[in-house]
């Protein structure tokens, strides 16, 4: 699919009346390989906007997945402007950890792990602490999976153990 197809999906992602169409458009946008810098920016912004503002949980969940997948495509050797975009993705996914819908928060947790930016570790550890106070085991597993993917450290850890790991890894 060429630029015209990407443009059509961008239009559907933000303008379709049906939430399933918006979500599917975002999902498809996440699956492309390299895009031109201008299209990449538009896809990223559409996903950030949907994650923050779409009223449908399925669209926000798909936006979180798309952000993580697109960040991985463009993150190799990130410097300067690319690093600023990566920080924005990490910030958007970190905010989504507090989403009212557990599926969105889980997608954000897994997405933060996939993005591969260790600046996400503190947000994930704080979220792990919050979910462990409740009874959402799926959320706890998603956060642990995100931390394992991000850090390369395998096995369940408490928030305190993750904080110890973070302090020791900064030395």
Helix and strand string, N-terminal first?
A: HHHHHHHHH
User: What structural class is derived from the secondary structure elements?
Assistant: mainly alpha
Low-confidence stretches: none
- H/I helix tally: 9
Which percent bin holds the helix content? Answer: over 70%
- The overall average pLDDT, rounded, is 91
Shape: globular
Strand content: under 5%
Task: Throw out a few tags for this protein.
171 residues, mainly alpha, 0% strand
SSE arrangement:
Blueprint: H1 3-15, H2 19-30, H3 37-53, H4 57-74, H5 81-96, H6 102-115, H7 121-132, H8 137-151, H9 159-169
Helix pairs in contact: 1-2, 1-3, 2-4, 3-4, 3-5, 4-5, 4-6, 5-6, 6-8, 7-8, 7-9
Characterize the structure shown.
The protein is mainly alpha-helical and 171 residues long. It has nine helices and no strands. The protein has helices at residues 3-15, 19-30, 37-53, 57-74, 81-96, 102-115, 121-132, 137-151, 159-169. Helix 3 packs parallel to helix 5 (81-96), helix 7 (121-132) runs antiparallel to helix 8 and helix 7 (121-132) runs antiparallel to helix 9. The longest helix is centred in the middle third of the chain and has 18 residues, at 57-74.
In short:
The protein has nine helices and no strands. The longest helix has 18 residues.
């Amino acid at each position: 699919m060429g630029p015209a197809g990407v443009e059509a999906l961008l239009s559907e992602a933000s303008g379709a009346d049906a939430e399933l169409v918006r979500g599917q458009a975002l999902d498809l946008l996440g699956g492309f390989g390299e895009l031109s810098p201008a299209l990449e920016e538009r896809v990223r912004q559409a996903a950030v906007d949907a994650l923050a503002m779409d009223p449908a949980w399925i669209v926000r969940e798909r936006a979180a997945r798309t952000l993580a997948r697109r960040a991985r495509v463009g993150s190799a050797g990130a410097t300067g402007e690319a690093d600023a975009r990566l920080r924005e993705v990490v910030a958007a996914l970190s905010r989504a950890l507090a989403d009212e819908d557990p599926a969105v928060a889980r997608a954000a947790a897994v997405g933060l792990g996939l993005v591969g930016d260790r600046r996400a570790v503190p947000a994930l550890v704080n979220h792990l602490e919050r979910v462990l106070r409740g009874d959402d085991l799926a959320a706890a597993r998603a956060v642990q999976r995100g931390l394992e993917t991000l850090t390369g450290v395998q096995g369940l850890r408490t928030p305190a153990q993750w904080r110890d790991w973070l302090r020791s890894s900064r030395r």
